[in-house]
Design goal:
With 64 residues, the chain is mostly beta strands. It has a single domain, classed as SH3 type barrels, CATH 2.30.30.30. Helix content is 0%, strand content 45%. It has a 5-stranded antiparallel sheet with strand order 4-3-2-1-5, with no helix packed on it.
Length: 64
Amino acid sequence: MTEQEIRVGDRVEILQPDYVAGKFGKILTPELVQDGQLTGRWIVKVEHEEVLLSLLPEELRVVS
C-alpha cells in the first residue's frame, strides 16, 4: 500500500499490530510531528472502540 492510495476518510482493515488485526477503522489524518513534518504514518480510529492507532501503510488495507 502506498501513501498516495490512502486518503482521509477511507475505511481500512487493520493488519497489524496483532491485538487489533482483523478489525476495521477509519483514516482520520496523516501523522505529523511537532514541526509539521509528515511521519509516513496514519492515525486510524478503530470502529466501535475508543482506540486510536498510528499505523504505517503496510499495517493496513483500504477497503473503501
